[in-house]
Amino acid sequence: MISIKRTSSENLDFCSLIELLDKDLQLRYPGTQQNFDAFNVIKQDAKVIVAYDDDIAVGCGCFRATENENIVEIKRMFVKAEKRGKGIAKSILTELEAWALEEGMISAILETGINSPEAVSLYKKLGFEQIENYEPYINSDDSICMRKDFSRKIS
Fold it and tell me: Which of 10, 47, 89, 93 is 20 to 30 Å from the Cα of 109, by its Cα?
């Protein structure tokens, strides 16, 4: 049974999942991923979600404030390969959105990549729309930036 836990960036399960995410991204984007490592550092004030399957951490995601008031950036979305296709990422993203709404946020932005079609598909299904790439992804041909206004319901 999948359970969702709100936590912080210091959560050890989150840290372990992020190591797996970084390895996955290196495989998907071997020539460019290192250019974005500095932007993937999660600060202590990030709002972190970890998904558990029978007390084993299987997925994560978080959001952080942006320079734009009332807009968050979704970061570090990941589900272990063997657990994909079971709705875990949707559960994580739904909980992140609910948490952001509780914090008074009105929309979210995120960056994903051209070599992550399953992520792009999920985000579109959940109401995110592609936007122009924002900093630091403006000149990245591998990046796809998206936005969702929370007034749009998740289907």
Answer: 10
Closest CA to 144 of 121, 112, 109: 112
> Which residues of the chain are under the pLDDT cut of 70?
31-43, 152-155
3-state helix, strand, coil in the chain (%, to 5): 35, 30, 35
Termini Cα distance of the chain: 22
pLDDT for 155 equals: 47
Residue 98 CA, chain-centre distance (Å), reads 14
123 exposure class (CB count in 10 Å sphere: 0-12, 13-18, 19+): buried
Pick from 120, 111, 147: which is nearest to 36 by CA? 111
Residue 64 pairs in a beta bridge with: 73
The structure tokens 């994560």 sit at: 60
Tell me the backbone φ, ψ of residue 99, rounded to 5 degrees.
-65, -45
In the numeric block, which tokens belong to residue 13?
A: 């399960």
